[in-house]
Design brief:
Shape: elongated
Number of strands: 2
Membrane topology: Single-pass membrane protein
Strand content: 5-15%
Strand order of the largest sheet: 1-2
Mean pLDDT: 87
Radius of gyration: 20 Å
Protein name: Thioredoxin-related transmembrane protein 4
Subcellular location: Endoplasmic reticulum membrane
GO cellular component, one term: endoplasmic reticulum membrane
InterPro entries: Thioredoxin-like_sf, Thioredoxin_domain, TMX_domain-containing
Low-confidence stretches: none
Largest sheet: 2 strands, antiparallel
């Protein structure tokens, strides 16, 4: 979820109720703010918000059902998750591909922080910051090409 997301705000009370019922369902319920954890956003290939996953014994399934408390509980109690196709091996959050994706999301966060530091703290013009990133990209590419 993200705090600014209207759909996430809409489901928040239902999700909190579901989390309170989790002890009776013998499950753990959590939520992750993708603005605070961009690596997890990349690892789980989050493209829409909110995104709900069911994980059991290292097998991940994306929940796409109704977002009412009754439907969420039914998904677990009636074991409806067994009929849902698991996330493909290469897209699984534990795969090496998604570890790489998480790394790219972390890298983008660092780039944003560096850009903010250059423009905000040091007062460098935005276009100069862009030029520095272009130069760095070219130099890294040349170095890797050697």
């Amino acid at each position: 979820y993200a705090p600014w997301c209207p759909a996430c705000q809409q489901i928040e009370l239902t999700w909190e109720s579901f989390a309170k019922e989790s002890e009776h369902l013998d499950i753990t319920v959590g939520k992750v703010d993708v603005t605070q954890e961009p690596g997890l956003s990349g690892r789980f290939f989050v493209t829409t918000l909110p995104t709900i996953y069911h994980a059991n014994d290292g097998v991940f399934r994306r929940y796409r059902g109704s977002r009412t408390l009754e439907d969420l509980q039914g998904y677990v109690l009636e074991r409806k998750w067994e009929a849902v196709e698991p996330v493909a091996g290469w897209k699984s959050p534990s795969s090496i591909t998604m570890h790489g994706m998480a790394g790219l999301f972390h890298l983008s966060g660092w780039i944003r922080q560096i850009h903010s530091y250059l423009t905000g703290t040091l007062g460098i013009h935005v276009w100069i910051s862009y030029a520095l990133f272009i130069l760095a990209t070219l130099l890294i590419g040349l170095f890797l090409g050697l």
